[in-house]
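S., here's the first fold you wanted:
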Amino acid sequence: MEKKDHINHVDAWTSLRSFTNARIALGRTGVSVPIEEALQFKMAHANARDAVFSHFEKEQIFTALQLFQQPVFFLRSSATDRHVYLQRPDLGRRLNEKSINKLNNFKSKGYDICICIADGLSSTAVNMHAVNLLLLLVPMLREQKISIAPFCIVEQGRVAVSDETGNLLKVKLSVILIGERPGLTAADSMSAYLTYNPSVGLTDESRNCISNIRPEGMSYATAADKIFYMITESIRLKISGVHLKDNIKAIS
């Protein structure tokens, strides 16, 4: 006679796990989480911590950007290292003096947009996804004759660092691709933030965000279409943030 297992309980939602990476239907062993799920949780937590401190592969990104045959600037925020970056978010929003001088010496005559690539809270995300997205987005922009300032690779950067960068480059719209805060189901989520008429001191209501750009989230193709739509609409209407709506589905 087969002995019934009264200890291990399988959750009724187990079949739904194939549709999501969310931590659902974990089951239980007695009153505890099964050991396999407990270990997976620890692994996810370790991956998230690693993503925050992962190496920003800026040289490889620089090399890949040469395909577009336009200048690339290496910039840094005022945060001197990773620990300062985490403890002083305000310093990550401003360029350091050397970077400011570099952009001033460039003497920009004005562009439609600038594209920044910053490590943010997950270098892993931009290392994996930034160039793949730009391979789709940049040709779309060039086809519409949207002028692009030199690419800016920003180390220890927060979202708002693109405001100062865009202002110094005299652009109509700043775009920043940045690694988002890692979660327990995604350590490689990248977002794109768009700000019209960028200047120091703007806050989040002035921006639009396209988030969770990665193969398991929003695909590169979908993200490129959305970003392109938001860029063209922002420039046409001369607005961004809460005043600019994503109506791409309504016109598709």
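And the second, which I think is the more interesting of the pair:
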Amino acid sequence: MKIKMLPNWCKKLGLLIFTVGFIISGYKDFMMGFTGALDATKFNYFENLFSNSVIHLLEIGSILGMVIYLMSREKIEDDYINKLRLESFQLTSFIGLAITIISYSISEEIKLTLDYFIILFLWFYLIIFALKKRIY
């Protein structure tokens, strides 16, 4: 079965979109976690430049950039790469489902939005696929 995928040069485009969106939208949260500061106004550099809706669009852009990266072809594309993609997707789905069930069984009042689970799913897929590709 032939899978329609983006060309290989889209990996660079997806990585660029992800990096820009991730840095701008995640700067404040990263700095608050890194320094342990409770004062949220201390790291409002990008919030002063952009509105909240633009920062939200950049968060969505970082997710789309990662999806573009993952949906791009490898330099050498064959049936074995497709098999590794399928196995990685299956394992990632099971891990994501397990994390969701465990997190909601521990606490019903989790205040995580959907983008946390999407980013976690995409990161797990990327890591598992890279590990499987190196092992085999």
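Why I say that: The chain has a mean pLDDT of 84. Residues 78-136 form one domain.

Talk tomorrow,
H.
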